[in-house]
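Fold this sequence, please.
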Amino acid sequence: MEDLKNFYNSIHTLKEKLSSIKGFSQLLIEEHKDELSWNALLKIKEIIDHSLSIEKIITDIFDAKNLEKQQYDILIIDDDPSTINLLTNYFENKGYSLIGTSLGNSAIELLNKTVPKLILLDILLPDGSGYDICKKIKTNKRLEDIPIFYITAVPEVEVNKKMNETCANGYFLKPFNISEFNTLLNYL
């Protein structure tokens, strides 16, 4: 229990420090953009980008640690937070629990701990291809029966070409017609 408390305190401290770094960097740009050289502005922007990247890693670690023992119905793997939020709201309103992650590697870690009833998987991820993640899941005896549906903006022609090779169960193209997701209720 003490380890978990220390973990949460460390996460909290890191997030506070990142908030300061990111916030002051943004203030520098907003308040002094006319006074700063182009190179200085680019460096400050780079600091902000790195802060966001570190913040995302911390959030993914926190989510994975926090959800290690939790059971959930649907795993969403998508690098777009608004897509995760939309689908989470939609399925939670129907009474289902969800976990969302932006990284394929985090998803694999989550799948090593618990098995969902359904996976919604983006094809273009920051740490690799959704096609490769799908193949990895479908070749694992413990996970192979989990239905996987791509959620993607990749052209339909390309997705269709990869369906048999990756053994995915289907796909939904962005921008979504949210009512199309009703068909997934049969898997839950």
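The longest strand covers residues 148-152. DSSP finds six helices and seven strands in the chain.
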